[in-house]
Design goal:
It is built from 8 helices and 8 strands; from the N terminus they run ααααααβαβββββαββ. By secondary structure, the protein is an alpha+beta fold. The chain has one domain: SMI1/KNR4-like (3-Layer(aba) Sandwich), CATH 3.40.1580. Strand 7 and strand 8 form a beta hairpin.
Length: 211
């Protein structure tokens, strides 16, 4: 059966414990958030309580202007549901904070200042041909942080082997350590599926991938 808008409602009614890849891959960001909110409410209310209200259209326009980029539609759709979480109150996505737009700008500007003041824009090799061999690039947009120098970012300046809007994981000590998917939607739908598959545990202060 082709997934549709009734999928979320069905999960509300029967509280199924699993969501398959086939079920989530065609859901919208808004529908995925609904599934996630339902799981949070039942299994981890601390996570639900830190979700922020939607970003406004004015704030979204200001964010793109400050960044100097056109953000991917799937990521903007997510911000239009929840503009991040209460910063560092409770971590989502493998102990990472899902950043609101102001924190996105703060983290982005910090890395640009590092490039400017320390000249660390030299080539830094990584194991992923899709991502440029640099320490940080101006068109990498951080959307999470773990408080210890690691970010998940949206790559709007990939190599010719990559995809605009792909996601990577950056560690300030080692550089790029993971390729997370070809789009925010792919990454987010996989996260929702993994949540329902029991791959995350609630620990003090956040959800941690236990697989």
């Amino acid at each position: 059966m082709t997934p549709n808008s009734n999928t979320t409602a069905n999960h509300d009614q029967d509280n199924q414990s699993q969501v398959t890849s086939a079920e989530v891959e065609n859901l919208t960001i808004k529908e995925l958030w609904k599934l996630l909110e339902n799981w949070y409410k039942e299994h981890c209310p601390e996570a639900y309580e830190v979700l922020r209200p939607p970003i406004t259209t004015e704030e979204l326009q200001e964010l793109e202007t400050e960044l100097g980029v056109k953000l991917p539609e799937d990521y903007k759709e997510s911000l239009l549901v929840h503009n991040g979480t209460d910063y560092r109150e409770f971590s989502l996505i493998n102990l990472h904070n899902y950043l609101g737009h102001k924190n996105v700008l703060d983290e982005w500007k910090f890395h640009l200042s590092m490039l400017e003041h320390f000249g660390i824009d030299k080539e830094v090799e990584n194991d992923f041909s899709e991502i440029k061999n640099v320490w940080w690039a101006p068109k990498w947009i951080p959307f999470t942080e773990d408080g210890a120098g690691q970010h998940y970012f949206i790559d709007l300046d990939p190599t010719d082997k990559g995809t605009v809007g792909q996601l990577g994981s950056f560690d300030h000590e080692v550089g790029i350590d993971m390729l997370l998917g070809k789009s925010f939607h792919e990454f987010f739908s996989n996260y929702v599926r993994d949540i329902y598959d029991g791959k995350y545990s609630a620990l003090d202060g956040g959800l941690f991938d236990n697989i």
